[in-house]
Amino acid sequence: MLLSSFRSCKVVTGFQSGIRGCIWASFGFLGGGSVANMDQMSGSKRYSSDMAEFRKHFDKASHIVVLTGAGISAESGVPTFRGAGGFWRRWQAQDLASPNAFRKNPSLVWEFYHYRREVMASKEPNKAHLALAECEERLQKQNRRVVIITQNIDELHKRAGSKNILELHGNLFKTRCTQCGDIQYNRDSPICFALAGKGAPDPEAEDARIPVDQLPRCKKPDCGGLLRPHVVWFGESLDSNVMRRAEEELDSCDLCLVVGTSSVVYPAAMFAPQVARRGVPVAEFNIEETSATDSFGFHFSGPAGENVPQALAPTENEPAT
């Protein structure tokens, strides 16, 4: 499967760096040849918005993969840091979410992530998160599998009750030591004393300029190294184990849902089109169409919190509970 070529891909956005960087570089073709026309790759078939027809596929599916992105969390009030107004102070997320930014100014990057961690304390899973968790629990009793592969780092799926979750881009509430590599779950608020009251998103806010030795540090004996958020930054490779497990789920699913993703961050943006190319029904749930919409069998416009619960509600053929 083509999905295996994504294991070593780095997180990038856009058509040229995404498609060419992930597909052609994976096969050693970067620098020569041409990129295939997307309409030829995915087909130009128009989608259906017939919920009753989608529900027929859902009723028969035994292995469902749900790909989720920032849009589903946006309905819980989580900032996306994309599009117009998508700034923290004077920076967009990609300006700070990189190894180079952390090397240059770890204090500023930690302020940004401290702000995001604190914001999440006030957010709750929405109806779409809850519907996915309920569906997973219900179908498990019928020996049917539901797996979430998410680009989100906010833990809202976990808090909603979902169990089968693959976090492609890491977790906002995990840290990784830059010295010994130790990974720890951490929901401390604040994560360190020096960050208390810091991270205001106001463009006029002054940078805290916290000394490195006062930023979050590793608590392992004989280490004390600088911690970083355990998330995948732009330019970094996705975790190979997570990618392998995602590949296995995508290669064997018989129904795929794409919820709240803009289909611009690669390699994740190629997952659903690849599934569709092997004939598996794919349904997109999004506020608007995306560049990948026409490669899917179904598209449902509108809030995920309205459409996803309807799509995944029990069918007449399911056993009574």
From TrEMBL:
Chain sites annotated for binding NAD(+): 69-88, 151-154, 260-262, 286-288, 304
Free-text domain note: In contrast to class I sirtuins, class III sirtuins have only weak deacetylase activity. Difference in substrate specificity is probably due to a larger hydrophobic pocket with 2 residues (Tyr-113 and Arg-116) that bind to malonylated and succinylated substrates and define the specificity.
Enzyme class: transferase
Catalytic activity, as annotated: N(6)-glutaryl-L-lysyl-[protein] + NAD(+) + H2O = 2''-O-glutaryl-ADP-D-ribose + nicotinamide + L-lysyl-[protein]; N(6)-succinyl-L-lysyl-[protein] + NAD(+) + H2O = 2''-O-succinyl-ADP-D-ribose + nicotinamide + L-lysyl-[protein]; N(6)-malonyl-L-lysyl-[protein] + NAD(+) + H2O = 2''-O-malonyl-ADP-D-ribose + nicotinamide + L-lysyl-[protein]
Protein residues bound to Zn(2+): C177, C180, C218, C223
PROSITE patterns in the cross-refs: SIRTUIN
Protein name in the entry: NAD-dependent protein deacylase
Keyword Transit peptide: yes
Protein's job: NAD-dependent lysine demalonylase, desuccinylase and deglutarylase that specifically removes malonyl, succinyl and glutaryl groups on target proteins. Has weak NAD-dependent protein deacetylase activity; however this activity may not be physiologically relevant in vivo.
Entry EC number(s): 2.3.1.-
Active site (record annotation): H169 (proton acceptor)
SUPFAM superfamilies: DHS-like NAD/FAD-binding domain (SSF52467)
One cellular component (GO) term of this entry: mitochondrion
Organism (species): Lingula anatina (Brachiopod)
InterPro entries the UniProt entry points to: DHS-like_NAD/FAD-binding_dom, NAD-dep_sirtuin_deacylases, Sirtuin, Sirtuin_cat_small_dom_sf, Sirtuin_class_III, Ssirtuin_cat_dom
Keyword Signal (UniProt): no
Keywords, alphabetical: Coiled coil, Cytoplasm, Metal-binding, Mitochondrion, NAD, Nucleus, Transferase, Transit peptide, Zinc
A Pfam family reported for this protein in Swiss-Prot or TrEMBL: SIR2
Annotated substrate binding sites: Y113, R116
Family stated for the protein in its record: Belongs to the sirtuin family. Class III subfamily.
Note on how the cofactor is bound: Binds 1 zinc ion per subunit.
Cellular localisation: Cytoplasm, Cytosol; Mitochondrion; Nucleus
Ranges in a coiled coil: 132-159
Gene Ontology MF: a single term: protein-malonyllysine demalonylase activity
